[in-house]
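User: I'm putting together a teaching handout on how sequence relates to shape, and I'd like one worked example. Could you take GNAT family N-acetyltransferase from Saccharothrix syringae, show the sequence you're using, and then write out its predicted structure as tokens right after it?

Assistant: Happy to. First the sequence, then the structure tokens directly below it.
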Amino acid sequence: MRIRELTGDDVGEVDRLRRVAFGRSDPGPPRPGRRCLVAELGGRVAGVLTIGEYHQFWGGATVPMGGVGGVAVDPHARGRGVAGALLDAALRDMRERGRALSVLYAAVPALYRSRGWERAGVFEYLDLPPDRLPAAGRPASRPAVAGDLPALHACYVDLASTVNGMLDRSAPAVEVGDVLDLDVVSVVPGHDGEVRGYLTATRRPDGLRVLDLVGRDAATQLGLLREVRSRSGPLDRVSLRVVDPAVTGLLTDQAIEFTVAASAWLLRVVDLPAAVAARGWPAAGGLTAAVDLEVVDGHAPWHAGRRRLVVEDGRVRVEPGGSGEVRLHARALGPWFSGMQDSHALRRAGLLDGDGRLLDRLVGAPGVPRLADFF
């Protein structure tokens, strides 16, 4: 089996594989910020995956992340290790290109778990009747224009940097200008070109789907929620993507029971020392400590073995050595890094042995990690 980068000659065959696998395709070469790997058997394309080059917020700092998607294998090649070989090659590729983490949405979780990815966050929509949205507040918004894009993006980044797991939506993998193609793009202007908040949404046959509702203060958020309510018209349901958990959790009138459409995403630590060095660690201030790890990772041998996690002068680093007192399997690294699971849960799942109190203290788990982008 040969794993290589996609070429122009492969586009038609890759399009066919994805139509068979997903009922849709993404014809043409990858967009900027995305790369494709293909698996070849007997001179024929047998599988494909795409890696998006993103940056993800953790502890207020961005960590380079490879978003894996579009994994498709020819039905005639299944059972021959094609998907596993593509994932192993993707891990090496991401490490070489400085992607310290990897995220994917798994249709077949067992495959990805066998390669070290594990559930570490959520992508959610809240589905509710329009009358559960506040009627108070004044939208004071206007349609967005191209000149608003830098300020709109800055408004998003100010929020995203406070929510673990969110993308910074930087170019080239994310083109901010694409937002203007949506059905609804409203901004709440501030002073000197600042955007106080914005709303993006699409009108679908089954109702209004709100993609982003972001405001710098409660008054702006309430005004945008009122705008959503007014745009709902005769619709009896509205879907709100959970971008800012304060908006959906604290400012809407949810009843005792409500509907959430949730997708789990899986995180994989590709390069532990690089990921730890890039991440923000707010709980590390004033702390001097160390814990000896033994990392069990047969698919990323570059960071496997005995390591010391050292906390000093507000910074955290991973270096070789130590006694291996705390044993961590590859699948434990993602949920620990994200704060989705603590050491007690990881121990009960058989993914950690030893005293993980320092690991728990460092992460602090400030809310559920979430993404507001699907790839």
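A couple of points you could highlight for students: Residues 82-96 form the longest helix (15 residues). The chain has ten helices and 17 strands.
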